[in-house]
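LAB NOTEBOOK - FOLDING QUEUE
OPERATOR: T.R.
BATCH SIZE: 2
PURPOSE: Compare the predicted structure-token outputs for two unrelated chains run back to back under identical settings.
PRIORITY: normal
REVIEWER: second-year student, initials M.K.

ITEM 1
FIELD SEQUENCE / FIELD STRUCTURE:
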Amino acid sequence: MHIASLYRRAGLERAYQLVVMEDENTGYQTLAPVSNMFNLIARFHVEGSDCFSYKEHMLKRQDFMWIGPEGVMCGTNGSQLWDAAFTTQAMLETGWQKRKRMRKRWLRHWNGLIRRR
């Protein structure tokens, strides 16, 4: 077997171990909606749809994914703060806050984050 195949197999096995540990440590709720769906797919791929872990993921999926008036909705109660934090960080990284006309807007984002933390 080629060395790259051995590394790939070892990487996949380790990644799957991390998925299993996250599932067990969070009661299959995982850390976020996206990782929940990734874990659901990984567990289905390895263990099939009849396994306990897949069924638990399908139950927990209802906590953050539902059908609303606009269609399929996805989120958690705290995701708005994460979104605002990432947006504010992106603004900072690009130097947006240094532009005179944008500084006030950036400060409003920053102060909102400080109040919510």
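ITEM 2
FIELD SEQUENCE / FIELD STRUCTURE:
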Amino acid sequence: MSPEGSGLSTATARTPAASFRVADVGKDVSLAGWVNRRRDMGRSSSIDLRDRHGLTQVVIDATESPDAHKVVTDVRTSCAAWSEAPLRSASLERRTRSWKPAR
């Protein structure tokens, strides 16, 4: 992937993982950090992106972003990663008992 296509050629404001709030849902956010964990669920994959502020789960759906889904299959733990996409909230059925909404 070329730097132009990856978005790495331009400086962007990065959002710390722990700073997301309910009011931010729907806004475009830019994340950078290290892959803490990767999961492959067939049609979609997810990575837990870690930065010094905390963890954010990045979900990549093959039907919405086929190119990104192909790239994420090669991502390994501790790889540096960058993502830019609209922020979404977890659906009620996917939230765990320990999930607490941001204020």
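REVIEWER COMMENT (ITEM 2): DSSP finds two helices and four strands in the chain.
FOLLOW-UP: none requested
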